[in-house]
Amino acid sequence: MRILVTGAGGQLGHDLVDVLNGCRPPGAVSAPGSAHDEVFGLEHSRLDVSDRHRVAAAFDALAPDVVVHCAAWTAVDACEGDPDRAYAVNAMGTRNVAEAARRHGAHVVYLSTDYVFDGTAPHPYTEWELPNPVSVYGKSKLGGESELDPEWTVVRTSWVCGFHGSNMARTVMRLAGSPGPMRFVDDQRGSPSFTADLAGALTLVARERLPGTFHLTNQGVTSWFGFAQAVLRAVGGDPGRVEPIATADLDPPRPAPRPANSVLDNVAWRALGMTALPAWEDGLARLVAALGSGIEAPSQS
Fold first, then answer.
1. Rounded to 5 degrees, what are φ and ψ at 71?
2. H/E segment holding residue 183
């Protein structure tokens, strides 16, 4: 099988290419089996999905059987300030990928987000609940979902952390080396998802061409406050340094609204009899070990 991964320079795309190639990404539970596919990982510098002609040329050159579309503009607050760019990348970029995929008969697996929901439900969101995004980022990603054919795949995930790129785990580890309290919101709840685990599930989805919508996250629920405390424990720091704060009290306030409830129920995955991703605490422990568990001292100027 010929598999194309867009956004291969991102934290999820990087680990996915590793797993598809039979390599073990940092923080993975175990090494994947041997690979028998031709894998083409294209980062943004090699494939800007908002450029329709470049997308068409890439598909013509590679003729993929499956494309895992990870490329996206995920800077939530920046999207709020530049909606044209957000829609150009996340919605129109997906339209460009879908158009090229149809011409080559390729199956598309599209990575989406918890931000397609407004976060007001009192329960975890299932795959069959109606989206209602409240941010430009969420609206543009839902726009991408709308570009897909019914037999293709949407995989929604949340609170993504991995060895490559920026994420909340890395942020907390960096702040751990500085003195003073650390304030994180305690009124946003979700399920952290670790790329080393998510990449393995996506590999199965891609190779089996599983149709429909799936929610895929590590198991368990926490707040950003609880997550920051867990990171400090994992690196041998003092979780008592973390102080809870309400989203409304953030100073300065964030430009983009966040869903208070980002918990995605992995109902469709369970219904197929698939193995659930590990608990988020387990994924975090493996990521911290891969990154190095020592707290770095602040740099001296």
1. -60, 130
2. strand 182-185
**Three-class DSSP labels, 32-85:** CCCCCCEEEEECCCCCCCCCHHHHHHHHHHHCCCEEEECCCCCCHHHHHHCHHH
In whole angstroms, what separates CA 215 from the centre of its chain? 11
User: Is 289 within a domain?
Assistant: no
11 neighbors 47 (Cβ within 8 angstroms): no
pLDDT of residue 30: 80
Rg (CA), the chain: 19
The whole-angstrom separation of Cα 298 and Cα 295 is 9
- Give pLDDT tens digits for 199-250: 999 999 999 999 999 999 999 999 999 999 999 999 999 999 999 999 999 9
Q: Which two tokens stand for residue 246?
A: 């309400």
Q: Is residue 181 part of a domain?
A: no
Assess if residue 88 is contained within a domain.
yes
* pTM assigned to the model: 0.94
Residue 116, CA distances (Å) to 41, 47, 220 in order: 26, 25, 20
Domain carrying residue 37: 2-167+191-220+263-280
Rounded to whole angstroms, how far apart are CA atoms 254 and 264?
Answer: 23
Q: How many CA atoms lie within 13 A of 138 on its CB side?
A: 18
Residue 147 DSSP SS3: coil
Residues of the chain with pLDDT under 70: 34, 293-301
For the chain, helix, strand, coil in percent to 5 are 40, 15, 45
Q: Where are the alpha helices (DSSP H) in the chain?
A: 11-20, 52-62, 76-81, 83-87, 93-104, 136-146, 168-175, 195-208, 224-234, 267-271, 280-291
Residues with a catalytic annotation lie at 137
**Could you tell me the CATH number of the domain that includes residue 42?**
3.40.50.720
pLDDT value of residue 127: 98
How many domains, in total, are found in the chain? 1
Element of type H or E holding 216: none
**Is residue 155 in some structural domain?**
yes
